[in-house]
Predict the 3D structure of the following.
Amino acid sequence: MSTILVADDEKSMVEMLEIMLQREGYEVITAHSTDEAIEKIGKHELDLVISDMKIPKEGGGAVLRASLQRERTRPVIMITAYASAESAVEAMKMGAYDYITKPFDVEKLKLTVKNALEKRGLVLENLNLKKELREKSGIKEMLGNSAALAVVKDLISRVAETNSTVLITGESGTGKELVAKAIHAFSQRSGKPFLSINCGAMPEQLLESEMFGHKKGAFTGAANDKMGLLEVASEGTFFLDEVGEMPLSLQVKLVRAIQEREIRRVGDVKDIKLDVRFIAATNKNLTETVKNGSFREDLFYRLNVVQIELPPLRERKEDIPILARTFLEKFNAQNSRNIQSFSKEAMKMLEDYHWPGNVRELENAIERAVVLEAGQWISPESMPESLRFPSAEALAVSVPTGGIDMELHIGEIEKQMILSALKMAGGSKKEAARLLNMNLRSLRYKLSKYDIK
């Protein structure tokens, strides 16, 4: 619940604003003088301040200054009955978020309050992200010591110091957003916002408005001017996730934004200068989408200045133990558990699996195991069925960089197929042998060979 301070010497105005804001779900604190307002700014954790310009004794300017001195990220909305361009400009120059004159439209004030709190949320989120990334040193968050991951980390370190546009490619779940955040954390823009948008997660008109902003009246429901995320990300980094899903009509505007470093809000005639670094990510083959006409060639070349390709988890199997143990610690803490580690059988199961969902699937599997495990060690029985009874396609068939023992690997596939057949057969050896197209004697030999009870 956001907490708002309302400061005005007019009692009826304070009561009206208090009732209106409480109905919107906000906690409201009131003040009737500058001294009282300044005292409460120092005493309470506030998310927004609404102050009258002419509040006695020192006026709303003193309230604004006190709020900004206490916390610069907190928005302040000024209200006055004395409308003049001079006072509006003065308040905005001092750092006010917005300026509203009496009598004001209640719905407009509600929207202004909502937008101010949303902007504050974005600013705080980015400040917290910066702190978190710095504490974790960005790249250290990318766990693993494999040669494939080392190449990625080296690229991140080298490209972060530049302003070049980066295209991150790889399967879903490989950590593309984590790479984008690491690049930002190590860049000269790290003190500025990191904002992202999923290009395939919203309708075209909404995506355009979110990215580029809009002018009041640009379309139905555009009741106020709105800054786009590209503007909010000024001097920082803008991450375009799943950029291959972006509609062609918006790709044209994005090309211009990258090339000309300027944008135009929906419904506006003026251009806005842009200073952001672009990082894009996709799990699609953009070369193929260019060929079939669903992605612009000029946009592809502007995004693909530096490409970082993330390896799937099946190509860096040596990283699985450290990832698994890290996730175990995480979910132990979250669920108040004290599971020590993994049994040998469980760890082998993790290392042998193909991981089509990559690191994200591994994390989910460990979370499930922590929740369901009754003992002190993660056992195979706590693992998802996809790991305990994997299909042949789910077992690794590519040769990892460190090589592979083919006979052992084929034996593991054979063992998993037998287990899967026994499950389907309800434990009947005869039915399992039929499903596997082998005689019962051969099945019994295999059961003994693989120590299957």
In short: Residues 106-135 form the longest helix (30 residues). The mean pLDDT is 87. The first strand starts at residue 3 and ends at 7.
